[in-house]
Amino acid sequence: MPLSDFLDGLKDNPYFGAGFGLVGVGTALAVARKGAQVGMIFFRRHYMITLEVASKDKSYHWLLSWITKHARHTQHLSVKTSYLAHESGRVHTQFDFHPSPGNHIIWYGRKWIRVERTREKQMIDLHTGTPWESVTFTALGRDRQIFFNILQEARELALKQEEGRTVMYTAMGAEWRPFGFPRRRRPLSSVVLEAGVAERLVDDVKDFIGNPKWYTDRGIPYRRGYLLYGPPGCGKSSFITALAGELGYSICLMSLSDRTLSDDRLNHLMSVAPQQSIILLEDVDAAFVSRELLPTESEQHFQVYPLAFQGMGRLTFSGLLNSLDGVASSEARIVFMTTNYIERLDAALIRPGRVDLKQYIGHCGRWQLTHMYRRFYPEEPASEGEIFAEQALSAHSEISAAQVQGHFLLHKADPVGAIKNIGQLKG
Ligand SMILES: Nc1ncnc2c1ncn2[C@@H]1O[C@H](COP(=O)(O)OP(=O)(O)OP(=O)(O)O)[C@@H](O)[C@H]1O
Ligand SMILES: [Mg+2]
């Protein structure tokens, strides 16, 4: 049969006709769908605005809190638990609810905003080991101002939560992350140091912060290093926390014995530390030991020196010195170091320029004991403080403030007992 006859035959076939009709509907649907897609893309491009914020961005956590506040009715939540163990042993936990990954709709500024929080399952942020996340805000209209308003509000909300509090940061990968929830500022007066010591330190730091021009005029890097040294429990860490509170600064806590710390990472962290913060290197002796104290080769053979005190990890001593020198920024850079063993520190680490002010924080003297007693028992006559100091010093030597605090806590409501039982002070 010739081809034309075959096609004619098909045309007369009723099934073929029906099939042709179906194909026609299918094509129309496909075209309509395509049209809708194109229309949607067009609509999105011209009548919708979106804002994507990645978890790496500073404002990400602020925005999560903001969303939590505004998406009050959402039923899908995830939890972030903060855990804080106080020095006194009291443990405090707090649950922060955040909207879980997925879509949330928020009514804001007389507009509906769709908030989509996405979490990548396959991708993790190698620096922090957390899943890669982002939030995307979508709103109708063309006015971007709404996003600025949201960001601003989120920032203010976060700052309000931190008001009157000291934020602690730790290094997570290549960035600083707040840890725990901000602590209530510790008043400076609650840390009783020997007469004049606290004032000297506070004046020095304030003078430094207040005079950036002095440094730039002379071409001196705008940074200042402090070393607090002395026996354990005498108030080094407490004083630095209180000082940060006094200045309204946060604290960036850096552990040099962190085995994952490398020269590059330390350098980077030092340069990206949040503004208005104190970089705190606790127990600097634990990571490095003075080169003079390093065992000679024959001693090394017998390992007379504890291995823990040799440089650990990939952080080298010269790397540490370089990162201390390299922190040049227009912001005041304040580095505090603490140690129990100043004699173990290499002279290069504590030379002027790296450590500009060294302060010994020692065992309690008479003045300090008197004032601690008066602070703890303000209702008692002032002379009782002197009696307490007198008796404490005659019964013990080398009393640390932490021991005195522990003794007072045992005699919380018994100021007379605190003096009478002075023998138990070193418990
Ligand atoms: N001078 C002080 N005045 C008031 N309280 C103090 C003082 N020193 C220490 N304390 C109390 O003792 C405890 C331990 O103090 P802190 O951690 O500041 O000591 P430290 O000098 O940093 O010790 P370490 O060398 O072991 O780190 C804290 O609970 C603190 O409140
Ligand atoms: Mg300490």
Automatic annotation (TrEMBL):
Keyword Hydrolase: yes
Catalytic activity: ATP + H2O = ADP + phosphate + H(+)
Major localization listed first in the record, in broad terms: mitochondrion
Mode of membrane association: Single-pass membrane protein
Spans traversing the lipid bilayer: 15-32
PROSITE patterns from the UniProt entry: AAA (PS00674)
GO CC field: mitochondrial inner membrane
Subcellular location: Mitochondrion inner membrane
Ranges for domain BCS1 N-terminal: 23-191
InterPro entries: AAA+_ATPase, AAA_lid_BCS1, ATPase_AAA_core, ATPase_AAA_CS, BCS1_N, Mitochondrial_chaperone_BCS1, P-loop_NTPase
The organism's place on the tree of life at top rank: Eukaryota
Residues annotated as domain AAA+ ATPase: 222-365
A Gene Ontology BP annotation from the UniProt entry: mitochondrial respiratory chain complex III assembly
Gene3D superfamilies from the UniProt entry: P-loop containing nucleotide triphosphate hydrolases
Single Gene Ontology MF annotation: ATP hydrolysis activity
One Pfam family, short name: BCS1_N
Keywords for this protein: ATP-binding, Hydrolase, Membrane, Mitochondrion, Mitochondrion inner membrane, Nucleotide-binding, Transmembrane, Transmembrane helix
Record-stated family: Belongs to the AAA ATPase family. BCS1 subfamily.
Name recorded for this polypeptide: Mitochondrial chaperone BCS1
